[in-house]
Amino acid sequence: MTSLLPTIPSQTIAIFLPKSIEALISIAGILLSGNVYMPLDIKSPSQRLQAILQNIIPEYIITDSTHKAKLEGIFPKEKILLVENLLEKTSEIKTNFASRIDTDPAYIINTSGSTGVPKGVVVSHRSVIDYIEWILGEPRICPSVNDVIGNQSPFYFDKSLFDIYPTFSVGNKLVLIPEETFIFPLEALKFLEEKRINYIYWVPSILSNISHYDLLKNTQAKLDKIFFGGEAMSAKVLNYWKKFYPQATFGNLYGPSEITDICAYYIVENHLKDTDPIPIGKPCRNTQMLLINEKNSNVCTQGEIGEIIIRGSCLSLGYYNDLEKTNATFVQNPLHQKYADRVYQTNDLGYYNQRGEIVLVGRKDHQIKHNGYRIELGEIEIALRDFEGITNYCVLYVDSQITLCYENQAEIPKTRFLQHLKDRLAKYMLPQVFARFETLPLNANGKIDRVSLKNSLEKTERNL
Question: Are 257 and 109 in contact (CB under 8 A)?
Fold first, then answer.
């Protein structure tokens, strides 16, 4: 007699471990068990960690004896599992996929978004499978079995999927670069050389710091695949790297967490001037990207700016335990009402260049109205890409003033900025406040934390 298997929903199991082989084993084990994994940041403030756990309520948390104490008091003690007790040799691998289908969730990534409130993005097996198949089907991106990938991104950041899943599929070598290595960029380059890493996918801020201090002249790292994404990259920085690695493949990878890490890519084949924007290129396999203007019409004209919307199997299932926010962001395709056609509104603004590639110009939620003019703050940031002397920077709108926040060890005269921008921007777009920081705050994903930065500036202004 054959018993019917119950269709028990998959359970969410959190992973509270540093970036390590134990964390990778936990990811694989949870997937093989037919459940959902959720990586957490061991450095998260307790308040943020508690907010995530209260929203998701995982069935268990896998951690180690070093980090267990941080979970006690905010999560049931009996549901905290020590990885040391779970690791054991086995002659038989058992899986539990019988009641799973490809639209079931595979993982949850928590992202702060623009408001700073954690959102649990739920991604299905179908999306992950398509993601892997796109990488395997793109010869210029797919790693070979002989490649050595140098992982930069922590596992709670979806950029790490680009390192993990191809390695699972191809069987290449994956080296987990310690996070503290990136505090000193020269040490990161030495690490690449020592471990013979030839394949990287890093956030642009790290590449920019290496360029700023001209560190590539001091390394013999043998890189032949260099990818970047997660934030805007300067063509000036790209050209610096190309000078040292003229034969390498360079690629700009684009995608929000809500669409399984990457939905568009641009392999650098043409020469770009230092002041040129780097396109995000074309959609990945089984993905469509549209530009929609304010009238909800399809943008077809070169240079016309529209919001990027995405459709395809890359779309996540939405936000965990928040159907209202999910339905506000994942909407019916505005181009028709003939049948259900779900798209993701990115809030990113872009245009088509002369080659039909999409170029980013900023975000809708970075768009302001100042002195009667509608201004996209991203456009001001783009105009600063080739400015000498700053590594990281961003433009905010604080107390009705356009504010440039920049990272540098010494104050830069306001006149230098204005001289640089006067031929690039309309007068009404020029920053009025210039705020120097020795180090700009970063969020958990390694991007500039615009929310905390703006809050800090507003608080300082109130106290003056």
Answer: yes
